Amino acid sequence: MERTLKLYTDPISPYSGVATLALLEKKVPYEPIHVSLKTHETKSAAHSERHPFGKIPVLETVDEQGGKMLLRESQAIARYIAEKYRAQGVSLLPPLNASSEVIGRFEEAACMERNYFTPNVWKYTSEKLIKEALGFGPPDPVELARYFKEIKKALTVLDKTLGTREYMAGPRYSLVDIYYAPWMKALFNDAGHKELLVEFPNVGDWWGKMCDRPQVQKVFELMGSGTIV
Ligand SMILES: N[C@@H](CCC(=O)N[C@@H](CS)C(=O)NCC(=O)O)C(=O)O
């Protein structure tokens, strides 16, 4: 039986935002432990013991016998929380008796985020908001245009999908919406691309519903408006 949850996190990190949002939606108490991205604490010896690639977030669970488990990778953490706490908070997964078709569609939506949307937002926001701050020179307009084109391609597909369903993976809010949320914030708010909400109106409607959720508001408040690392 699990007793304590610790989340090694830096609130400005979108990947940590995914894990945090899952914990908040499932009403799971946890202790946040700050691992600073700015001071490269992710690469310290202590953190390398927690994550072999020196990344956050990491979730640490301790059972009643004192046995520890470290779980790495934002989506693995969010999925663990959604599975373990199925009975509390909002449901984030297909029901246990879901058809193969529903599960297939759910995983398809998750893969779309992981493979076509977020990697391009990550590259775009890194180029636009972080590169210069780290001393690697000004943003390269050619690279920015290349990533932005890919982002718009992904949003075109998403807008079509969201014309047929309320949320990313189906009629209900789910884990997949959580995967998208911090990266959409990075694109619309931090990188200043709110015009995309008009250009892609179904994405705009979805974003409106997301921003109405108190848990989403809380995570965005924690993330602040700083740069993303
Ligand atoms: N695939 C990982 C990516 C985690 C990741 O890249 N985290 C960033 C912060 S958003 C990080 O720890 N960067 C620190 C570094 O690379 O030193 C996940 O989903 O958790």
Automatic annotation (TrEMBL):
This is glutathione transferase. GO terms for biological process: glutathione metabolic process. The keyword Transferase applies. Its EC number is 2.5.1.18. Gene3D superfamilies: 1.20.1050.10, Glutaredoxin (3.40.30.10). One of its GO terms (cellular component) is cytoplasm. It comes from the Eukaryota. Keywords: Transferase. Pfam families: GST_C, GST_N_3. GO terms for molecular function: glutathione binding; glutathione transferase activity. Residues 3-89 form the GST N-terminal domain. The keyword S-adenosyl-L-methionine does not apply. SUPFAM superfamilies: GST C-terminal domain-like, Thioredoxin-like. Residues 99-229 form the GST C-terminal domain. It catalyses: RX + glutathione = an S-substituted glutathione + a halide anion + H(+).
